[in-house]
Design a protein that fits this description.
By secondary structure, the chain is α+β, with helices and mostly antiparallel strands. Helices cover 37% and strands 14% of the residues. The strands form three sheets. A five-stranded antiparallel sheet has the order 3-9-8-7-6. α5 packs across α15.
């Protein structure tokens, strides 16, 4: 799979935000994004970082389960040592302060790099803490990870079916991300009849060809191209990214957004069933794609996408696996079941 991020290579022809970590600009913030009521970000100044105290650490967040459960395509496992090597310009400080090991106890056990809404970031677990170093604000990232929602309470309400409970245990810490509606619409149009590695590869190619190049922390990131950019393209432009027949669907959806035939902000305010009907009017959008967009792009947690993996899981429920079984948080249940049957039960990639 092509990496969504690579080491920074200067290219004067591309738009660039120069935010090298060791430059005078430093970075926007580095902070723990735990679930305590009082959290503070490190804020940037021309002379470097001014640090405010972080009150307490996060809980109940698994980066692996959250980023690798099929709901997002812009995060990649990284190496904390590479980031610290770039910061110092010499020997990695990772082995001295935050070793990149697979053990607990104040050590880096999960490290990812990605880009969300044009904000590049590095996210990692240090013991019981989840840290973000990136652009944006603490509030933005807390909202992205949906940290204001009590997942323990929600999960406790689900039925006691053994498969459900095993899925919850296996995916402990998985959270449904609050993602950009247009990016989700575009991404799930691309996802049709595709596997996750190919989806991620195609999205990376589209972003590198038509998105904005952003340098951050010595790495190169690409934003997801806007609907306006995609609407101006022709099918051959997108076919070079491996979209095939999906090219026309993506261009058509982008045109509908640009022309106001479908207003994503208004769809967020509609009831789930009504919003789904609007999405189904778009070419290339069927029930599965529509429900994915509703769940991951609009935060409609009662949406319940059914793909081949959920259909496979249905046999464990006597073919009675649907949104009605889980109520208003059916989408959260769906993600736990999807993650378990794909990564746990079948160990597929």
């Amino acid at each position: 799979m092509n990496s969504p991020i690579k080491k920074s290579v200067k290219n004067n022809s591309a738009q660039t935000h120069n935010t090298e970590i060791d430059s005078a600009d430093r970075l926007v913030f580095e902070s723990c994004i735990g679930t305590a009521a009082e959290l503070h970000a490190n804020t940037a100044s021309q002379n470097g970082l001014k640090t405010k105290p972080v009150v307490r650490t996060g809980y109940g967040i698994s980066l692996e389960a959250t980023f690798e459960c099929g709901q997002c395509f812009r995060w990649q496992r990284g190496n904390f040592d590479l980031l610290t090597q770039h910061e110092t310009g010499t020997k990695s400080i990772g082995s001295d302060i935050c070793p990149n090991t697979n053990t607990n106890g104040g050590k880096i056990t999960e490290f990812y790099q990605g880009i969300v809404c044009g904000f590049p970031a590095f996210v990692w677990r240090d013991g019981d803490s989840i840290w973000v170093r990136g652009r944006g604000t603490v509030e933005f990232w807390r909202d992205y990870f949906d940290l204001g929602r009590d997942y323990d309470e929600i999960l406790s309400q689900f039925d006691p079916h053994p498969f459900t409970q095993t899925a919850i245990e296996y995916g402990h810490g998985l959270r449904v991300l609050r993602q950009d509606a247009w990016e989700m619409l575009g991404s799930y149009i691309i996802s049709q009849n595709n596997n996750i590695p190919k989806i991620s590869s195609s999205i990376y190619k589209i972003c590198s060809l038509f998105g904005e190049r952003i340098e951050f922390g010595g790495f190169e990131f690409y934003s997801f191209p806007s609907a306006a950019v995609i609407a101006e393209l022709r099918e051959p432009n997108l076919r070079q990214a491996g979209l095939g027949y999906r090219s026309e669907y993506l261009i058509s959806a982008a045109g509908a957004v640009v022309e106001g035939k479908i207003k994503l902000d208004e769809l967020k305010m509609l009831a789930t069933d009504e919003a789904r009907e609007k999405l189904l009017q778009l070419r290339g959008v069927g029930p599965k794609v529509a429900n994915c967009v509703l769940l991951f792009g609009f935060g409609k947690l009662d949406a319940f996408p059914i793909d081949t993996w959920i259909a496979r899981a249905a046999k464990y429920y006597d073919n009675n696996l649907n949104a009605a079984r889980f109520g208003k948080y059916a989408g959260i249940a769906q993600e736990y079941i999807f993650y378990y049957i794909r990564k746990g039960l079948y160990r597929s990639r």
